[in-house]
Write a structure and sequence with these properties.
Elements (H helix, E strand, L loop, with lengths): L1 E11 L2 E12 L2 E5 L6 H8 L7 E6 L2 E2 L7 H5 L2 E4 L11 H11 L5 H14 L15 H13 L5 E5 L7 H16 L4 E4 L3 H7 L2 E6 L2 E7 H6 L4 H11 L4
Parallel strand pairs: 3-8, 3-9, 6-7, 7-8
Antiparallel strand pairs: 1-2, 1-4, 4-5, 9-10
Helix pairs in contact: 3-4, 3-5, 5-6
């Protein structure tokens, strides 16, 4: 999947969060890393059609994203999104959280939606949890349900915004294992993450955002082994200082 971003800028009031992002490459599994406040989540939300850029363009597979509000629903329906804390409907069961968007947004018949929801729960080790509401699930289970909901309509691109940031290490590993399996199944995704081991070993490419600019980009192994800028060397040095 080709993603092309040209002169992308985003400001909130007088604060410019993205400062002319340029990107043009095929995306399979891409990790976006960088310090907090560097623009990572804003970039992801713009790519997903959840935020409108101040200026610039985004194109996916050669089709430019139309950021007019009446055009965005059709684009959003082609993209799966997982938020930091899942964004599940708390009054619905895990199964219904997956099946409801299939019925109401994608027009899937009820019996097919329910069957597919149950199949995804089983795939992610949640076959016995389908009738439970989010409050009855662990953090890792909630995020696995959120990922199942995002991939249920078979989106052409999955976007994940720090999906493990609110989780304990045990549950973090559960979610990262699911993402690794999706990668092995050929699911294309872009993930904003602070999990450097996952970015390095499970993602083909890494983009390093710093102060609203795309400062480094390339193959994961190269980026971690030989960062080219002092900013990335400093960033990785801080994160890896206390690594086991």
């Amino acid at each position: 999947m080709r993603m092309t971003i040209r002169a992308l800028r985003k400001s909130f009031g007088n604060t410019e969060v993205l400062r002319g992002i340029e990107f043009d490459d095929d995306v399979t599994t891409l990790a976006v890393i960088g310090s907090s406040g560097g623009g990572k989540s804003t970039l992801l939300r713009i790519v997903g059609g959840l935020e409108t850029p101040t200026s610039g363009t985004v194109a996916v597979d050669g089709e430019q994203v139309d950021f007019r509000e009446n055009a965005l629903p059709a684009y959003r329906a082609q993209v799966g999104f997982v938020f930091q804390q899942g964004g599940l409907f708390h009054h619905l069961s895990a199964r219904e959280n997956i099946a409801l968007p299939l019925r109401t947004v994608h027009g899937v018949p009820a019996d097919e939606a329910d069957a597919w929801a149950q199949a995804l729960l089983t795939r992610f080790g949640l076959e016995a949890e389908g009738g439970k509401r989010p409050a009855q699930l662990s953090g890792g289970q909630q995020q696995r349900v959120a990922i199942a909901r995002a991939i249920a309509p078979r989106p052409k691109l999955l976007l994940l915004d720090e999906p493990t940031s609110a989780l304990d290490p045990e549950y973090t590993n559960e979610v990262l294992d699911v993402l690794r399996d999706l990668r092995d199944d050929g699911v294309r995704f872009v993930v904003v993450t602070h999990e450097m081991g996952f970015a390095r070993h499970a993602c083909d490419k890494v983009a390093f955002l710093h102060d609203g600019t795309l400062l480094e980009y390339g193959e994961s192994a190269r980026l971690f082994a030989a960062p080219q800028t002092p900013e990335l060397r400093k960033f990785l040095g801080k994160l890896l200082e206390w690594s086991v």
